[in-house]
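Re: that chain you flagged

S.,

Sorry for the slow reply, it's been a week of failed gels. I finally had a moment to sit down with the sequence you sent. For the record, here it is as I used it:
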Amino acid sequence: MKTLTITEGRGRLGYWLKMATQGEDVGFVFEGKIVALRPVGVTSDDYALREYGLTPAEMERAEKKIGTEVKAATKRGEMTRFTGGPDDFR
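Prediction finished late last night. Pasting the structure tokens below so you have them in one place:
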């Protein structure tokens, strides 16, 4: 493992993050402990729980409610599909 102080790593943080994403063991010494850089996977369930405190059941209800609201707004003409074309910005 490549171990760095915060001062050593700060100037080339992007480089060390890239190395960590490529599988290199990289750690920073912080308050006498080594903190490792590692990529992590994030799922939408995890995101909803961490960011909004939603349980899986609450997330499912929110998805249904949002879907219903989007359909209704589309039907009323308040929303249109975004295609990425120049007409989308009129």
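What I noticed first: Residues 44-75 form one domain.

Talk soon,
D.
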